[in-house]
Amino acid sequence: MTATPWKDYEPDEGTVTFKPQETSAVIRVKIVKKPPEEVRDEVFGIVLKSITPEGAKLSKKSMQIVNIITDQEKKKKEDMYL
User: Fold this and answer.
1) 17-47 residue pLDDT tens
2) Where are the alpha helices (DSSP H) in 27-71?
3) Count of domains for the chain
4) Is the dihedral of CA 79, 65, 15, 21 positive or negative?
């Protein structure tokens, strides 16, 4: 199922800056809390665009898919203590 902005995650935009020779960065996305009994299985994408300076490039992976899922093992442990 496709995640819905503001219902499943807080959408945002900004700039990711890479220093020379850097090949990765962390992008934080706030996930909206849901009731513990609600099982989650949603996805959304993060797209990198407007690459500068001229001549800079990304690999073929300018989009990253993010999965929001229920941690079933954690849920089982929590359910044991209810």
Assistant:
1) 888 888 888 889 999 998 877 888 999 998 8
2) none
3) 1
4) positive
